[in-house]
Design brief:
With 754 residues, the protein is an alpha/beta fold. The chain has helices at 2-13, 33-47, 52-62, 72-87, 163-171, 192-199, 211-214, 280-288, 359-381, 403-411, 413-419, 443-450, 462-473, 476-484, 500-505, 531-537, 543-561, 570-602, 631-657, 666-673, 710-717, 721-753, and strands spanning 91-113, 117-118, 143-144, 149-157, 180-184, 204-208, 236-237, 275-278, 315-336, 341-351, 388-395, 420-425, 432-438, 510-517, 696-698, 706-708.
């Protein structure tokens, strides 16, 4: 099927509009004609430098041993990365923070009734895989920041453990009060599962990997294929990141020196109930012992058992005890000072710590960053000097929940708010299509870069390949846009990687970049994510690693050297309009669904069931959601549209009319770098003030997944309608301030163009 699709794709490429092609004779976005020629020359030299072989060697070195936070090899890797940066001419140092990082002391999952079974809780070595046998250095499988606990109770299967799954259980008359729940990984971030379970009265949570999600349902399992085998376990943090990420004891401030720390018992982001991950090999006997109603079709995985939900007769004992230690994290920070505007910063990062050997996550992204930096060093030797300061960051402690990047950003918050123009993040890399999420003021910029990067397998631009893929496989509305919209849309950012503190807390325009889509795997956060797996099943010849270096390195070069910082506000305005329309549609859907449900109750539709084995419980009637006043948002949208259009004309006029080196732009660019800050509010979002961006945030009940216009959207979703209306006003005010900042930049541009 893949070969057939590729053949169709390549044929389809010839039918797409020629206007999508890059035009080398046109000035680059943000550059005058004169400076554009020099920039293209440096970019051509840069993109010839990254080496797949060097990336392969670097991955083999960095992933040779487990390198989790606090391990000897984690520090050795940081020191090796530091030496590399220094050898390439960077001003580099290691900055250390001291953070709470629990590691497991005792782990027990056992079935007590109706039969006895003790879970192995181990991932055995694989003979073909030489680093899978480093048991003495591997972190056991666990969920970091689970509270200590020793609980026994009946088991209930809750599917993915999301709020909607508990609604299904309510309809089946099943309660988890006083029970231990078992949830499968997927459909949301793992930390949501114990969070929602505790809210419903559960006393413990077990999370397992179902083969339907990343196991044999999708292909051969490791070592014969890339998918998760019956012993594979997904480690991971369950820190309540939607409240705040980073060190749980020092919210909002860098964890350094004599900083005041919360007591562990007072840290709000540590789970309320004990939680532990297991393999589907260990999960099968637990699930098979359940009776009670059958779960609906959406609950059913790929294990060869009936998916009953319980409760019981399965009775389970869960015990989790951790060592609660303060550990150092080692952030490697390397700088190239700017030659003309050193107080404007281009910040680029990827983390270097892993749960175990971490070849795919994160080393595949880290080696791309290192090759970018090496190539920058080569350009320095040839006489290139960036206009703006470039800062490369190899973060530590990302896996436990963005520890290194969050603490660094909090510690340097005032400097970053003043100086940072952009943050560009990667976090692992694969094979396939260019995937970018981020601030939509950077959407046009991303598209201009994507048009100039060649896909290593198809020998067309990665933009063209992405357009073809969306045109053939996207949703109907996406297919139309891919053919007709000037720029391909980028996704919105929630959380889950090191951009979080920059965008969500500080209001620094940010991007997250990677290649993927053709590299399915099931080794995420297991001992099998290592050099052997990556070189057999992922980007085996490292050509997409090279493409990632070329892509992000080009972004860094352009942002560092542009005459006018390459923000564009028209795509942002279009995107905000889309989000606003989604909110109006969401509210109407909730109103219609509530009316229909209430009418069904009046008609007696829930009084009986045709299946006596699955009795239903009639829900209570609800008030129909009220109408909300979207007028302030509509008015702000109109202002934003006008401001964005005026700016686009002004920047095009300026760059096209400038005949020599652009002068006097530092003030203008300083204004542009501050625009994203206007979308933040120091009071933050309701019930989570650390998150200050009003356009993007991780969802309170989705975790990594983005919520756009989050205060309004979650107000509607959580039936806090008065709060939603208040948030409409806050967002509208932020958009008005944003438009005013654009207008001020436009006036400066128009003055310079005279």
């Amino acid at each position: 099927m893949r070969r057939v699709f590729l053949a169709i794709l390549l044929t389809f490429l010839t039918l797409l509009p020629l206007s999508a092609a890059s035009h080398d004779d046109e000035p680059l976005f943000g550059f005058t004609a004169a400076s554009s020629l020099a920039e293209r020359d440096w970019e051509t030299k840069f993109r010839a430098i990254p080496s797949p072989q060097i990336m392969r060697d670097s991955m083999q070195r960095l992933s040779a041993r487990p390198h989790h936070v606090g391990s000897p090899y984690d520090k050795q890797n940081a020191e090796w990365i530091l030496a590399q940066f220094k050898s390439w001419g960077f001003d580099a140092q290691i900055e250390t923070f001291d953070v709470l990082f629990p590691t497991p002391k005792e782990r027990v999952v056992e079935l007590l009734e109706p039969t006895r079974f003790v879970a192995k809780l181990q991932e055995p070595p694989v003979a073909q895989d030489p680093t899978s046998n480093q048991q003495s250095e591997q972190l056991p499988s666990y969920n970091a920041y689970s509270i200590d606990g020793d609980v026994t109770g009946q088991l209930v299967y809750v599917n993915y453990g999301l709020p909607r799954d508990y609604e299904e259980l309510d309809r089946l008359g099943v309660s988890v009060q006083g029970k231990i729940v078992i949830a499968r990984y997927g459909a949301s971030w793992r930390g949501i599962k114990p969070k929602v379970a505790a809210e419903h009265g559960a006393i413990g949570c077990i999370i397992y990997s179902d083969p339907r999600d990343d196991g044999y349902y999708h292909g051969d399992v490791f070592p014969d294929g890339p998918m998760r085998n019956e012993n594979g376990v997904q480690r991971g943090s369950v820190l309540d990141m939607p409240i705040y990420p980073g060190d749980p004891l020092t919210p909002g401030v860098g964890a350094k020196g004599d900083v005041k720390r919360l007591a562990i018992k007072d840290a709000p982001t540590i789970t309320k109930i004990p939680v532990l991950p297991i393999s589907y090999g260990d999960a099968k006997p637990l699930l098979a012992a359940l009776k009670g109603p059958m779960g609906p079709e959406s609950f059913r995985g790929a294990l060869p058992i009936p998916y009953h939900v319980g409760p019981g007769p399965a009775k389970v004992h869960l015990r989790v005890i951790s060592n609660w230690d303060i550990k150092p994290v080692y952030d490697v920070i390397a700088k190239i000072p700017g030659s003309e505007a050193p107080d404007q910063w281009v910040v680029r990062g990827n983390h270097h710590d892993g749960w175990v050997n971490g070849a795919e996550d994160p080393i595949s992204g880290q080696i791309a960053l290192l090759e970018e930096a090496r190539a920058m060093g080569e350009l320095l030797k040839q006489g290139w000097k960036p206009k703006r300061t470039i800062i490369y960051c190899a973060w530590d402690g990302e896996e436990p929940m963005l520890l290194g990047s969050t603490e660094w950003a909090e510690y340097h918050a005032d400097e970053l708010k003043q100086h940072a123009a952009i943050y560009i993040n990667t976090d692992g890399n694969g094979r396939g299509y260019l995937e970018v999420e981020g601030s939509h003021s950077l959407e046009k910029f991303v598209n201009t870069v994507a048009r100039d990067i060649t896909d290593p397998e198809k020998n067309i631009s990665v933009w063209k390949r992405g357009q073809a893929q969306r045109s053939l496989r996207g949703r109907p509305e996406d297919r139309k846009e891919a053919r007709t919209r000037a720029d391909l849309r980028i996704g919105a950012l929630g959380s889950g990687s090191d951009y979080t503190a920059f965008l969500d807390h500080l209001g620094v325009a940010s991007l997250n970049v990677g290649y993927g889509g053709e590299d399915d795997g099931g080794i995420y956060h297991s001992i099998y994510d290592d050099f052997y797996w990556f070189t057999h099943f992922a980007d085996t010849d490292f050509v997409y690693g090279r493409a990632l270096s070329q892509t992000v390195g080009t972004m860094v070069l352009r942002f560092a050297d542009a005459d006018v910082l390459p923000y564009d506000f028209s795509d942002f305005a279009d995107t905000v309009r889309k989000y606003s329309d989604e909110l109006k549609a969401l509210l109407k859907t909730r109103q219609d669904e509530t009316r229909d449900r209430n009418q069904a109750l009046d008609d007696g539709a829930f009084n009986a069931t045709s299946d006596p084995r699955r009795p239903t419980v009639a829900p209570a009637k609800e008030d129909v959601p009220p109408f909300l006043n979207f007028t302030p948002l509509d008015n702000a949208q109109a202002m934003l549209d006008r401001s964005a259009e005026r700016y686009s004309k002004a920047v095009k006029s300026f760059t096209s009319r400038a005949t020599g080196p652009a002068q006097g732009l530092q003030g203008l660019n300083g204004m542009l770098a501050q625009t994203e800050r206007r979308l933040t509010n120091p009071e933050g979002l309701p019930r989570r003030p650390w998150y200050q961006h009003l356009i993007y945030a991780p969802g309170f009940y989705t975790g990594y997944g983005s919520k756009t216009l989050p205060g309004v959207r979650e107000g509607i979703e959580e039936k806090r309608y008065q709060e939603a209306e208040q948030q409409i006003t806050r967002v509208a005010k932020a958009l008005q301030d944003y438009s005013a900042a654009i207008d001020a930049a436009t006036a400066e541009l128009e003055k310079l163009a005279r």
